[in-house]
Write a structure and sequence with these properties.
The chain is built from four helices and eight strands. A six-stranded antiparallel β-sheet has the order 1-2-6-7-8-5. It has a two-stranded antiparallel sheet with strand order 3-4. The longest helix is centred in the middle third of the chain and has 20 residues.
Amino acid sequence: MEQVPDVATLVAIYNQINNYGRTNGMELTVTKPGEVLYTMTIGEEHLSSPGTCHGGVIAGLMDAALGAAALSLAFTTGELVSTVEFKINYLHPVRLHDHLVARATVEHHGKTLVVSSASISCPTRANMVVARGMGTFNRYPADKRDFHRLLFPESDQ
C-alpha cells in the first residue's frame, strides 16, 4: 500500500490544481484537519449590479469552504470528497471591496458521508456575518480520481 502524504502536502497540491479558487482570488488555510478558513475580496468581476456581489459568488465561497473542511479531514485517510448537497442562508448583501472570511468545521464524519457547517463574515464591516451554510459530502478513495496520479506519479508508469 502506498504511503499517503501528510495533510499539508495534500492541501498544497489541492491549491495548485484548484483553478476555481485561484481565478476568484480565494485563499485556503487549514487550521487543522476538519477546520478551515477560506478568504477572498470582492472585485468588479464578482458584481451582479453596481456595488453588489452576485449571490453565486457567495455560494461558491460557501461550497468551497464547506468542501475544504470535509476534504482536509478526508485527506487524513487518503480520501477525497464530492459535494452531495449544501444550503446557504444569505443574511446581508456583500459589497464591492468587502473582504470575506469563511470559517468551516466538520460537524459529523461517518463511513461514507461528511457534514460540515460554515459562516462567512466580513471583517471590513465589523465582522458582520453575511451568510451561513451547511453541506454534505461523499467520501471516496483518492485512487478513484486523477488526484491519485498527483499523489503517486511513479505508480502510473
